[in-house]
Amino acid sequence: MTQSNTEATLLAALMKDESVPQELKAVQQKVVDGARISDEDAMLLFEKAPLSLLSMMADLVRTRKNGNKTFFNRNFHIEPTNVCIYTCKFCSYSRLIKHRGDGWEYTMEDMLNIVKKYDGQPVTEVHIVGGVLPQYDLDFYCELFRKIKEHRPELHIKALTPVEYHYIFKKAKVTYEEGVRRIVESGVDSLPGGGAEIFDPEIREQICADKCTGDQWLRIHELWHEAGKRSNATILYGHIEKYSHRIDHMRRLRELQDKTGGFQTFIPLKFRNKDNEMAYLTETTVVEDMKMYAVSRIYLDNFDHIKAYWPMLGRHMAQVSMSFGVDDLDGTIDDTTKIYSMAGSEEQNPAMSTYDLVTLIKNAGRIPVERDTLYHELKDWSEDAFAEDTEYKGYIPLPTLN
Ligand code: V47
Ligand code: SF4
What we know:
2 domains
């Protein structure tokens, strides 16, 4: 019997259990049958489902899609600047333009030097995202992408979100269609999922009023998919939004995915409350975080992957998330992003070697599979001895968990 059959049988047995409320049993049946759940079902799961049941349902969906594999990739980040013209209230990372002297603003040469630092290292992707500033315009970025490709053609460029694209396309006075054409030509391979936050206009107005709207975010991803390219999607949860806003956000993504099929993975991002204008809010509990992973895994039936971004969630919670629908852990070797350590994540130095990550995945009973950005499988790391990996910068030995 396969693992997914075992789980389906267990879930079916649980349906006879009188302690499970009748209304939940109908949702459970849909999950066992592989049917799509409705917005009302998702609300029921958020409000009424015990965590153990959510874990089982999400695990069934995850196993059917990805077997026992947990994916990871080896990438590095470039954050061109932490100065930003926008004023998102949850952002601990950016310096307002009036405090520009406190931040950094990399030149093209600085960024190319970061790329060169990884020459000869087994990374497959560069993730570029940062603040929005006028000097980083469409021409600047197109030239940067071209130069990165000239230097290392096989390096996958995952770059910029609709927040930056909306700004630079408008500044260059080009339509979204023309802008997308130009970034495709300059070598961008995929779009990361950032900038989505919460699509609902009322919540968006309260937390990030001045950047692109939810509709604009979705439109740029739609055009990107129509150009034959792939992208990711995120949600920023655990602040002032309600469950209904999370469901609305996921519904818009599920609808667009039905249309284009261009999304690869969904990444729930837990709001962290250090040093930002929303620091008065209490952060969500672990139970709430696991619920978010599980409900998104069950609801987003047309997304192949659910990713936990461990530098934000913390490596140990990321490990637990694999029992709540997650099949992908991002961020290896030397995760140079400063966004999360600045926002109050436990991960003040978010670096983990391949050895650490593989150990973490294996100890959760999963098969660690290295992938490229487009989820082509590069290597099954189950049996590796790791001698050479321990030399990577940022190596932090993990305690053995079993
Ligand atoms: O859009 C900012 C979030 C995002 C805070 O696509 C915060 O592979 C929590 O999208 N608390 C950028 N979150 C990062 C991002 C991402 C990360 C890793 C992988 C991928 C991918 C995408 O960071 C922003 C915003 O939602 N963020 N401040 C905060 N205080
Ligand atoms: Fe700027 Fe992004 Fe921070 Fe908003 S979240 S202020 S767009 S860097």
